[in-house]
Every structure is written in C-alpha cells, then in structure tokens.
Specification:
The complex is a heterodimer. Chain A is built from 3 helices and no strands. Chain A is mainly α. Chain A has one domain. The longest helix of chain A is centred in the last third of the chain and has 25 residues. The radius of gyration of chain A is 15 Å and the shape is elongated. Chain A starts with a helix and ends in a 5-residue tail after the last helix. Chain B is mainly α. Chain B has one domain. Helix content of chain B is 69%, strand content 0%. Chain B has 5 helices and no strands. In chain B, α1 runs antiparallel to α2. Chains A and B meet through α3 of A and α2 and α5 of B.
Chain lengths: 83, 141
C-alpha cells in the first residue's frame, strides 16, 4: 500500500477510536458499553496492523475480546442498567 | 443462556478455536503471536463453553483442582526449562550456549528450548483466564 492510503486509513481509524471512546462513556446500558469496548479493541488491532506490528494486533484482539467476555460475566451478576 | 443454535455452533467451533490457539502458541517464534495471545485464545474457548452450556457443566469438564494444577505446572515448567542450562554447566535459561540443538531455521523446531518454555507459559495463561472467569461467575453465598 502507498503511504497516502495508509495515512488516510490511519485518520479514519483514529477518528473512529475517538468516537467509540466518547460513546462508551455516554451509553447507559452496560452491555452496550462492553460491546463498544470490544469494537474499540478491534479498531486498535487494525491500527497496529497498519503500523506493521501484527504481533501486537493479535494480542490486542485476543485480550480485548477476553476482557469483554469477563465484563459481560460481571454485568450478568450486577444488572444491566447503570444507576 | 440455553439456546439450541448457540450450543450447536459452539460445539462445532470449539475444536477449531482450541487448535488455532495451540497453533499460535507453538509458532510463537516463527509468526506473529506467542504464548500470551495463544493462551488467551485457548482459555477463551473454554470460557465460551461454560458461558453457553452453563457454569456447572463447564466446571465438570475442567474442575477447579485441574486449573490450579495446570497453573502451578506452567510456572514450574518454566523454572525446570531454565534449570536445563544450569545443569549443563552454563547460566540460567541459557539456550544455545548450553549445547541445546537449535534445529533448522524456518522449521517448527528452530528455537531450541523456546518451544517448550512457550508451551508452559501458554498453559498458565489459559488456566488463569478460566480461573478468573469462574471466580467472577460463581454464586456468592
């Protein structure tokens, strides 16, 4: 890929990252917040891949999905709606 | 969570997920990935099983005693592999300098002791993920 395309994709993904990070703090339903965090880590994995760090991309994807699953486990104990 | 489609899909996917996790663990020195990411993938396969089929059935397959044993075994395995260098008259965790055959470059066995050390770390990470999940999901009395 040419450097212009990589820059363009980087800007798109970083903007997406900021949007997700703001949305997580505004969403009231905790299950949606956990799923949005999963989307955050997948976007971060794509950014690592663009920076030619596939090792970090695999770790980010696996650890992000793992943390999301553990958060869903916690939510099933406490209740979905934030007070 | 007792859905028919979920149960069948997880039962079909689980062997492939575990196989991919073991692949990532064993090819840590050749391709992207390694013991940490591979161990998380193996652990997530087990977590998916107990999330869909219920915690009781999951703990039947992999009891708390087994995960504790695997966790301790992973740490001890790392130490034992480090002692190979000491026993052969060199320093701790020494790989090539202690006379371990390195194998052909590019093949699966090309890193000496790294393959065996990675296996121990991957097992430890996988059982730690399962232990974390079980501790969070257990009923409080």
């Amino acid at each position: 890929m040419s450097p212009q395309i990589i820059d363009f994709l980087n800007i798109i993904f970083l903007g997406f990252l900021v949007v997700i990070a703001i949305a997580v703090s505004y969403v009231r339903d905790l299950l949606y917040a956990a799923i949005l965090l999963g989307a955050y880590s997948v976007t971060m994995a794509l950014i690592w891949l663009l920076m030619s760090a596939p090792d970090l991309a695999i770790t980010e994807a696996a650890a992000g999905i793992g943390m999301t699953t553990l958060m869903i486990a916690v939510i099933s104990k406490t209740g979905r709606e934030e007070e | 969570m007792s859905d028919f489609v979920l149960k069948r899909v997880v039962a079909l996917l689980l062997p492939f997920v575990q196989m991919f996790g073991l692949y990532v663990i064993f090819h840590g020195h050749l391709s992207p990935g390694g013991s940490f990411s591979g161990g998380i993938i193996v652990g997530l396969g087990m977590i998916a099983f107990s999330l869909v089929f219920g915690l009781e059935k999951g703990s039947e397959k992999l009891t708390e005693r087994t995960t504790t044993l695997i966790e301790s075994f992973g740490t001890l395995w790392y130490g034992a592999m480090g002692l190979v260098g000491v026993l052969r008259g060199s320093s701790f965790l020494m790989n090539k300098g202690s006379g371990v055959p390195l194998g052909e470059p590019g093949k699966l066995y090309s890193g000496g002791l790294i393959l065996l050390i990675t296996l121990g770390v991957g097992l430890k990470v996988a059982s730690t993920m399962v232990t974390l999940f079980n501790a969070l999901m257990e009923e409080e009395d």
